[in-house]
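User: Hand in any protein.

Assistant:
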Amino acid sequence: MDVKVTTLDGKEAGSVTLPEAIFGLEPRTDLIHRCVVWQLAKRRAGTHKVKNRAEIWRTGKKMYAQKGTGGARHGSARVPQFRGGGRAFGPLVRSHEVGLPKKVRALALKHALSAKAKDGGIVVLDKASVKDAKTKVLIGHFEKLGWDNVLIIDGAEVDTGFRNAARNIPNIDVLPIQGINVYDILRRGKLVLTRAALDALEARFK
């Protein structure tokens, strides 16, 4: 699959061939779904916690006589029935992480890239850098290119000025190639890969 290479000024800078083994697969939604579930579960902190009746400090004295009151036979004020009592079956500190083999993760990434390529959502950028690293200048470049919801993937090192200029723009994400992931690819309308990112992807899946 041949794709034209563009610059931030909107000019053509040649073309590249996207490898079929990475960008030419028939997308499998089941693999992509499994990977997204794994990602979102893994990033949950799991630090939610409530106190049960054993952790509530309250007097242990019986509230009132067992018989003769006409009311329920209560013994403890720490039970969940009362305000200030413990919580029954509440959340506890735990890990939400689910397992997913590395080979399945790698395959899901290929299928996510293939899905973007099939939809025409992949753009190849010559390089992600600007002389005047200002947010206003970068917004002008993006408006000229029609980018309002994109994920930009650069090589191993992202240009500091470009990253700082882009971080205040809504719906624009800039990541190094090590940070490429299925969820971020799907949540943005376009995937912008630099030449360095393409080379790194080919080396990664070789």
Summary: Residues 50-90 form one domain. Strands lie at 2-6, 12-17, 122-125, 150-153, 172-175, 190-194. The helical segments are 20-23, 29-42, 102-118, 135-145, 160-166, 182-187, 195-204.
